[in-house]
Write a structure and sequence with these properties.
With 440 residues, this protein is of the alpha/beta class.
C-alpha cells in the first residue's frame, strides 16, 4: 500500500490549509510552530477544553476534511477510522516530529540520534544527552521526553539532538537519522496498535525508514534478536556484560544491570556518531559526573530504619519490574505491584519471582492485583508470599514492616497508574508520602 504521508516538512506548510488534531503538549507546540510560519490552522480535539477548538465528533472531522495537511498528535492512533477517512481523501496525516526530521534531511540529520524501546529509552536518551554535554557539546534531549524539538518557544542552536521516540511517534516518521537505538522490546500499548506484532512492527519501523543505517540494539533481548530483519541495514548488539570491569559509568548512579546496558548503548551511539572522547574511559567518566537519574525510574527516595524505598512508578509492564527486582541481589524485597488493568500476562513476573534466590514479598493493589496474585500462586514452585492490599498506603506500611531491618520496599507496579492516580508521577508522590508516614 502506498504511504499516504509524503515527505513533507514544516517549511512546506506555509500557504497550505493545515489542521492540528489533538491539543496536548505536542499539539500546542505544533500550533506555535505553524503560527510562527504564518499559518493559522484549524484546531480539533477529541475533548476540547477551549471553545475555539472543534470536537472531532462534532464538526471537527468535517473541518479536517477541508485541509490540505493534518498534523496529528501522537496519542491519536494511526489506526483510527478517522485517519483512514482522511488518508482515503488524499489528505496527508503527519506528525510534528516527522516534519522536523524531514526538515533536517540532507542538512544535519547525521547529528540527530533517535532512541526507542519499550522500556529504557528515557534513561538512555537522558544519559546520552548528559554525556554529550559533559564532553563539551550543546545537546537537546527531547521528543517523547523533555522538550518538543520543533517548538519555536525553545532554543534551536545545538550541536546534537537526542530524540526519544515512542511507538506512537514512530508511525509518523517519513525518515530517520543514520544512527538509531533500541533499548528493549516487550508487549505494550496493544490497544493503540491493535496487537502485539503490529506494536513490534510500529515500534521498530524507524529503523528501516529512509536514511536509516545503523541500529544499536539490546543484545539481551531475545524478542529483538528474533526480529533482526526489522532493525535496518546494520545492527550492533550491546549486552549488559560488555566492557567487563569498566567503571566509567559509575558516576551516573544508575541501579541495575539493565541500566548498565543502557549506559553502554549510549556510549556505542556516541561512537557511531563520531563524537570525540567516546572511546576514552577517563573522558567518559568525567562526562558522567553530575547525572541525576530520572524520577520514578528505579529511583531511591529514602531510607528509614535501614529499609530502602525505591520509586519505579513508571514501570507499566512486566519487563521493567523484573529488571527492577534484579537490581537488588542479596536483599529482601517487598514488591508493590498492580494498577490499571490492561489484561497483560503476569505469568512471566511470577516465573521471575519464583526463580529469585532471595526472599521477596509481593503486595498487590487494585485493579490488576488479583490477577497478579493468581499468576504468582499458580507458578511452580509457589514459594513467594502474596498479600492483597486495599491501597498503596496499606501496601507501603506492610512492606516496611516486612523489610526491616535492611530490606527494600519497591514500587514497581507492572501496570499503569490510571484510575487511582492522575499519572505515574502522582503515584510516585503518593508512595513518598506513604514512606514518610512510616517514620511515625
Amino acid at each position: 500500500m502506498t504511504d499516504p504521508r509524503p515527505n513533507l516538512s514544516w517549511s512546506g506548510l506555509p500557504g497550505a490549509r493545515v489542521g492540528v488534531w489533538g491539543l496536548g503538549r505536542e499539539g500546542h507546540a505544533s500550533l506555535r510552530k505553524l503560527r510562527a510560519l504564518g499559518v493559522e490552522p484549524v484546531l480539533v480535539d477529541d475533548h476540547p477544553a477551549d471553545p475555539d477548538v472543534l470536537a472531532t465528533g462534532d464538526g471537527g472531522l468535517a473541518a479536517l476534511e477541508g485541509c490540505d495537511v493534518v498534523v496529528k498528535t501522537p496519542g491519536l492512533s494511526r489506526y483510527r477510522p478517522e485517519v483512514a477517512r482522511l488518508t482515503g481523501l488524499g489528505i496527508p496525516v503527519v506528525g510534528g516530529l516527522g516534519l522536523w526530521l524531514a526538515e533536517r534531511a540532507g542538512q544535519d540529520l547525521h547529528r540527530v540520534l533517535c532512541v526507542t524501546g519499550t522500556k529504557g529509552k528515557s534513561t538512555t536518551a537522558s544519559v546520552t544527552g548528559h554525556l554529550l554535554t559533559g564532553l563539551g557539546y550543546k545537546c537537546l534531549v527531547g521528543g517523547n521526553i523533555g522538550v518538543v524539538p520543533y517548538d519555536p518557544a525553545e532554543q534551536t542552536d545545538f550541536d546534537y539532538w537526542v530524540i526519544e521516540v515512542s511507538s506512537y511517534q514512530a508511525t509518523d516518521l517519513p525518515c530517520t537519522p543514520p544512527v538509531t537505538a533500541v533499548t528493549s522490546l516487550h508487549p505494550d500499548h496493544l490497544d493503540w496498535h491493535g496487537g502485539v506484532e503490529q506494536y513490534y512492527r510500529d515500534k521498530l519501523s524507524m529503523c528501516t525508514q529512509t536514511g536509516a543505517d545503523l541500529t544499536v540494539a539490546s543484545g539481551d533481548s531475545e524478542v529483538l534478536r528474533q526480529r533482526e530483519k526489522l532493525l535496518g541495514p546494520r545492527v550492533e548488539w550491546v549486552s549488559q556484560d560488555d566492557e567487563p570491569g569498566a567503571d566509567w559509568m559509575a558516576p551516573l548512579g544508575l541501579l541495575g544491570r539493565h541500566n548498565r546496558r543502557n549506559a553502554l548503548i549510549a556510549r556505542r551511539c556516541l561512537a557511531a556518531l563520531g563524537v570525540p572522547g567516546a572511546s576514552d574511559d577517563q573522558a567518559m567518566r568525567a562526562a558522567a559526573a553530575g547525572y541525576h537519574p530520572l524520577p520514578s525510574r528505579l529511583a531511591p527516595i529514602g531510607t528509614i530504619a535501614g529499609v530502602t524505598f525505591v520509586d519505579d512508578s513508571l514501570s507499566t509492564n512486566v519487563l521493567p519490574t523484573l529488571a527492577a527486582l534484579d537490581a537488588f541481589p542479596g536483599r529482601r524485597v517487598a514488591l508493590i505491584a498492580g494498577g490499571h488493568d490492561r489484561g497483560i500476562d503476569y505469568a512471566p513476573l511470577a516465573a521471575g519471582l519464583a526463580a529469585r534466590e532471595w526472599p521477596a514479598l509481593v503486595l498487590t493493589v487494585p485493579d490488576s492485583g488479583p490477577r497478579v496474585r493468581a499468576a504468582i500462586e499458580a507458578a511452580e514452585p509457589a514459594k513467594v508470599d502474596v498479600v492483597a492490599c486495599e491501597d498503596l498506603d496499606t501496601a507501603v506500611e506492610r512492606g516496611f514492616g516486612w523489610a526491616l531491618p535492611d530490606g527494600v520496599v519497591l514500587l514497581s507496579p507492572a501496570a499503569p497508574s490510571f484510575g487511582a492516580f492522575r499519572d505515574y508521577a502522582d503515584r510516585g508522590e503518593a508512595f513518598a508520602r506513604a514512606m514518610n508516614a512510616c517514620q511515625a
